[in-house]
Design a protein that fits this description.
The strands form four sheets. Strands 1, 2, 3, 4, 5, 6, 7, 11, 12, 16, 19, 20 and 21 form a 13-stranded mixed sheet that branches. The protein has a three-stranded mixed sheet with strand order 8-10-9. Strands 14-13-15 form a three-stranded mixed sheet. It has five helices and 21 strands. It folds into three domains: 88 residues, Baseplate protein-like domain - beta roll fold (Phage tail proteins - horseshoe like beta roll fold, Roll); 104 residues, Baseplate protein-like domains (Phage tail protein beta-alpha-beta fold, 3-Layer(bab) Sandwich); 162 residues, Phage tail proteins - horseshoe like beta roll fold (Roll). The longest helix has 17 residues. It is mainly beta and 364 residues long.
């Protein structure tokens, strides 16, 4: 069964432009990554006479499943001896926060992640501010009943107010919210339906996909695989230090000067990494865990290319587990999908490239 891909561009009532649907493409590339600020797409339309305007909201569906909600950033119409071509580019709604700068420059002492997000996102269009998700349970999927404010899975006690933080001119909304989320050991990303999430990657779960390369050649479902191990950006120990001078909530020297250390028992020799985080006495521990996790992910990268965009009726999707049985690369285990790109080209047809890494958070 071939993959169905369609772009749905929202109506522009101000300029009296009706909504349209495009489902014929010469090529496309649709990318998602947990660690990339904004997911992006590039589409070359089969019908270059199609009228699409920049600034419109859009949705991308793969096999009738929504995989991206965003904005049209760029439209290019090219004329040459071969005829006319039309390409469309855009990003998910996180792209708005990457581009939008903070207009109020002040110290935000006492703000939680939730209160800061509500303040900074007040004027941002297209964002559903009532359904931002704040993760409390760090294992598995986000879950929790909606609170009084309408947000689900609130951080509750762990979302303590920051002690020191200053918004400076030139900082974007994404910069500020990303830094706050990192201080709590969380990522800040956007779901396919446009929901903003402060949360951690899945630490464990039942694999929903399978990649297989057996030497006998039976049951293989992989076009190509690549395993890269690189220790240049990995460390045996991560130390995060912080100072909270001037904080009235810390009365002892131990509270004023904080240190958090995590270690990687798999690293082959002693190699320390030290950096600073002065937000509060919670930040160093959470920052250290996420820093070590990122280093481990970048130190062992798995890239697999498969045909089509789904497996067993389910589109390949990031932040899900996949079991890999690869006798050639000598890999047998469950890995987290943190990056995924849907491609269509004239030569290869529809393919999906997956980036996978080691799951789980490092214990402090």
């Amino acid at each position: 069964m071939s993959d169905n891909v369609d772009l749905r561009v929202g109506a522009d009532l101000k300029n009296k432009i009706p909504g349209i649907r495009v489902d014929h493409f010469l090529s496309y590339q649709i990318s998602s990554d947990l660690y990339t600020p904004a997911d992006a797409f590039h589409l070359e339309l089969a019908n270059p006479e199609t009228e699409i305007k920049t600034g419109l909201s859009c949705e991308l569906y793969i096999n009738n499943q929504r995989e991206l909600t965003g904005i049209i950033d760029k439209v290019s119409r090219k004329v040459d001896s071969g005829g006319v071509s039309l390409s469309v580019e855009g990003r998910d709604l996180m792209g708005l926060l990457v581009d939008s700068y903070c207009e109020s420059w002040k110290t935000v002492t006492g703000y939680t992640i939730k209160s800061l997000a509500e303040m900074l996102l007040a004027k941002v269009p297209f964002i559903n501010r009532k359904d931002i998700r704040y993760q409390q349970n760090v294992v598995g999927r986000l879950k929790g009943k909606k609170g009084k404010s309408g947000s689900s899975g609130l951080l509750a006690g762990s979302d303590t107010a920051q002690q020191i933080s200053q918004i400076e001119p030139g900082m974007t909304i994404f910069d500020v919210l990303k830094n706050y989320s990192l201080s709590r050991g969380m990522l800040f990303y956007c779901e396919p339906d446009g929901t903003l999430v402060f949360g951690r990657p899945m630490a464990k779960g039942v694999p929903e996909y399978t990649l297989q390369i057996l030497k006998i050649g039976v049951g293989n479902n992989v076009i190509e695989s690549e395993l890269t191990e690189d220790i240049s950006q990995r460390y045996s120990k991560v130390m995060i230090v912080g100072q909270q001078q001037g904080s009235q909530s810390t009365a002892t020297a131990a509270g004023i000067n904080t240190t958090a250390v995590v270690t990687d028992a798999e690293f082959p020799f002693y190699k320390p990494y030290v950096t600073q985080d002065n937000n509060d006495n919670v930040s160093p521990k959470e920052r250290a865990r996420l820093t070590m996790e990122k280093q481990r992910r970048e130190g062992k990268q798995l890239i697999y290319k498969v045909g089509r965009h789904s497996q067993n009726g389910k589109n390949w999707r990031i932040n899900n587990f996949c079991h890999i049985k690869d006798e050639v690369q000598k890999i047998d285990g469950d890995y987290l999908i943190y990056g995924r790109t849907f491609d269509l080209s004239e030569d290869a047809g529809p393919t999906t490239t997956l980036k996978l890494g080691m799951p789980g958070l490092i214990a402090g």
